[in-house]
Structures are given as C-alpha cells and as structure tokens.
Amino acid sequence: MTKRMQLAILFLGIIGLVTGTILIGAYQAARQVPQFYREAMKQQPTSQQVAGEQLEKQVLDLHNDAQREGQWEAVFTDQQVNGWLATDLVQEFPRLLPHKMRDPRVAIDENRVRLACRYQHDNSQSVVWVDVDMYLTDEPNVVAVRVCRARAGMLPIPLKYILDSITSAARRAEIKMKWAHDNGDPVAMFTIPAQREADQRVIHLDALELRKGEVRVAGRTESPDDDDVEDLPETPHVGQSEEIDKSQQ
After folding, report:
1. Residue 13 scores a pLDDT above 60
2. DSSP code for 31
3. Which long-range contacts (CB under 8 A, 24 or more apart) does 89-94 make?
4. Which of 64, 81, 109, 225 lies 20 to 30 Å (CA to CA) from residue 133?
5. How far is 48 from 77, CA to CA, in rounded Å?
6. What's residue 158's pLDDT?
C-alpha cells in the first residue's frame, strides 16, 4: 500500500468519524426534552382533572360575564391549561392536534408562551416546542401570536411546519385567522367576534397580559351605537398577510 493510499484511507476514516459524531450529537440533541416540558408532564392525573375543570369553569364564567354590560376579566394559569390539555382535549377534541403530535403542554412567562408536544416520526420521537409572544394589535379585538423560534429537542427546525400546523389546527377548530409579519417573524392574527347576534351587544377586548405562570384577559361589554357598529372588525381570512409593527403598541 502506497503512502498516498494510506493518507487517503486515514482521511476518509477521520471524515467518517467526524460525520458519525455529528449525527450522533444531532440525534441526541433532537431527543433532548426541555426542562419546562419535563415540569409540565409531572402534573398528576388527579391534579390534571381538577385543573382542567377549573379552567372550564372560569371560561364559562367569563363567557357569562361577557354577555352582560359592564367590565369583565379573568386569569388563567398554565397549570389549568395543562390540566385541560391532558384530559379534556384528548376526550373532547381528539382530532384537533396535527397528525403524529400528542401530549401538548404550555409554560407561560412574562414575555412569552412556550408550547410543546411529543412528535412521533417513524421509529424516532422528539419533543417539538415553540416560543411565541401574544399581544393585542391596534385593530379592535385582534390578538397576535408571534412565532419567535421552534426546536426539536435542542435543534432548530424550519418554521414552515409549525405555521402549517397552526393553520391546520385553526381550520379544524373553525377559527378564522390570517398571517402577518412582525420584524420578520410570522404572526398569526385571530379576531375575537365583537358583536353578539342575539341582542347586538358589543364586546371589546381591552387587555391581554402575560405573567409568570398565568395570562390575564380583560374587556367590557356595551350596548351598541352607530359608531360601534361601523367600527366592528371584519373577520380575516386564512392565508392573508400584511406587515404590522409591535413597537407601535
């Protein structure tokens, strides 16, 4: 064997070793479970059931409050949301999650919401998670959900799959939305219906506040006048896109 052949074999061996190390590292990184998801999955079944029932009761109370004239507000915790996701979502809306996804959980902080779920692909499994920001826009009753980053374990993943999953879930839930952009980040914009068909009262969403472990919503319900009716937001269509600037909020 010539020296040149020995060097070639040595070079190929090094390349193979480095490639294998990278692939093993990427595989392990993709299977890493973020700490917030580990913590959320520790909730016991009994606690999940209680928390889910608390969430449903608060949602019902908020709905009833919004039917009457005056101000209203509610605070929902991430434990309540996770309890509902672990129990009622599976039982009542089994087809809402995209295919191959299960066990969704959330973690709420002062300036972001983290959403995660298990993703099964062939014989491998990872935890896919995404950081989002939520805020009210200048448009009446329009909530913006800004998608900041997405990961499979510790590895970045293309946002397109996440965006397609959000669009698909919104369609299955019959929630109308549109896509926009905020400083280059994709933003899902949801319009909260402002006017009740029964008695024409007008609902205004005035506050959406993220706190440590909870989210606060507040608003008011008023009798309509001509100005209110004219200013009611139109329901957006899925797939539309426009530029928005959060700095103006």
Report:
1. no
2. T
3. 93/173
4. 64
5. 12
6. 81
